[in-house]
Amino acid sequence: MHQAHAMGIYQDRIFPKLNGRLLGSDKLDELRAELIGQAVGHVLEIGSGVGTNFIYYSRAITSLTTSEPNQTSNKIARRSIRYFNFPIAQKGQTVEALSAPDKSFDTVV
To answer: Has residue 65 got a pLDDT over 60?
Structure first.
């Protein structure tokens, strides 16, 4: 198998699912709940992955914008977006490529 093809399969299919599972532990969940629960207003989440953090946001947020260049991760995250009471705008790009006016976000995760 060609190395670039193998890397594409890993990056597009294996990594997003594996990463979502590896980041789930009781201690990490406690830390997420404590830290992410403090977010308020318009929130920018950098590297949102498969949306593991979404459930930890409180009702104090107005909206969530995610910056995640991995399209497979975004696709997996989209499956849960409809279950939240705040709008979520997925940006399929790195945060460096994100175009937003200064002071657009109240909290960055």
So the answer is: yes
